[in-house]
Design brief:
Layout (H helix, E strand, L loop, with lengths): L2 H8 L6 H12 L5 H13 L1 E4 L7 H12 L13 E5 L3 H8 L4 E6 L9 H13 L4 E5 L2 H5 L3 H15 L3 E5 L8 H13 L4 E3 L11 H18 L4 E3 L7 H15 L11 E3 L2 H14 L12
Parallel strand pairs: 1-2, 1-8, 2-3, 3-4, 4-5, 5-6, 6-7
Helix pairs in contact: 2-10, 3-11, 3-12, 4-5, 6-8, 9-10, 10-11
């Protein structure tokens, strides 16, 4: 990592906390028309990284989740597919068996969720996940190194993991709930993008707070400004705590207003979620039929 980059990170403007949170609250208060809501629900479904990251995950559970990602609503072939299924690396092969090339297979790696491992272990973890069929890798940064000011280690590890990904896309998890300040979130976002991240992701979902609207807004500003500065577009993935259709639509409004329409696409914006998809499906059926479905309409994942 060059001294020029470190100096550039130090020159990033400080974040106006009051202004950021007020802007997020103002955008969250907006309502959208019924026809736009129908479109937004389908778009949100297509952006979901359907996720299970539990020690009790089994091949059967993972295959069932992959089947759901392919056909979220088995009664309605017009329902969009999910964007990806996100699992531990050793489960990636079971997902690939089910989805083929129709849905992305994302695997967490690099000693998820702590990131507390040697670089050699992180690279082996990444390579194994790719070999098992993952075409997206969700890595975690070394928050201890970042918070102690060792930005070079964080940067160089991302570069190395990106190389180990080969053709797989790399999502870099900042774990914003541990970064303490909005200034740190902005610096970590730029650091990850400079190191080659294809996506920047808020959280592992294992730490609270996970995704929040102000943090996501700040990261969207970062990817927008990064594209203006470099010409390269980077995606954003809020993960953890987004459970309702109402919440998802708030995030889509922020994407549109802050980054722009180019990011309203699953190639550039994702939701890391498990329970969100069920609520989207329930609301989708309500809009199509005028009534809510019964409790047996969606699966319990």
């Amino acid at each position: 990592m060059s001294k020029t980059l470190i100096a550039g990170l130090d020159r990033l403007p400080g974040v106006d906390q009051v202004g950021l949170e007020a802007r997020a609250a103002q955008l969250a208060s907006r309502s959208i028309k019924t026809t736009s809501k129908q479109w937004a629900i389908d778009l949100a479904i297509s952006m979901v990284d359907l996720t299970t990251l539990e020690g009790a995950d089994s091949p059967g559970k993972v295959r069932a989740l992959a089947t759901k990602a392919l056909r979220p609503d088995p009664t309605d072939p017009t329902c969009p597919r999910a964007a990806a299924v996100c699992v531990y690396g050793d489960m990636a092969g079971y997902v690939r068996e089910v989805v083929g090339d129709q849905v992305h297979v994302a695997a967490v790696a690099t000693a998820f969720p702590s990131g507390r491992a040697s670089l050699e272990v992180k690279l082996a973890d990444t390579a194994a996940a790719v070999a098992n069929g993952a075409d997206e890798i969700d890595m975690v940064i070394d928050r201890g190194a970042f918070l102690s000011g060792d930005l070079a280690t964080v940067h160089d590890q991302i570069v190395a993991v990106k190389e180990a990904c080969g053709s797989a896309h790399l999502k870099v998890i900042l774990e914003t709930g541990e970064l303490q300040t909005y200034d740190n979130v902005r610096r970590a976002s730029w650091l990850a993008m400079d190191a080659g991240a294809d996506f920047i992701k808020t959280s592992t979902g294992k730490i609270q707070p996970a995704a929040t609207l102000p943090v996501t807004l700040l990261m969207l500003e970062a990817v927008r400004d990064y594209r203006i500065a470099t010409g390269r577009q980077v995606g954003v993935k809020p993960a953890g705590g987004i459970r309702t259709t109402k919440d998802a639509i708030k995030y889509l409004v922020v994407v549109n207003e802050i980054a722009g329409e180019d990011w309203l696409d699953p190639d550039w914006f994702r939701f890391g979620a498990s329970s969100l998809l069920n609520d989207l499906l329930m609301q989708r059926q309500k809009m199509l039929t005028g009534r809510y479905s019964g409790p047996d309409y969606v699966t319990l994942d």
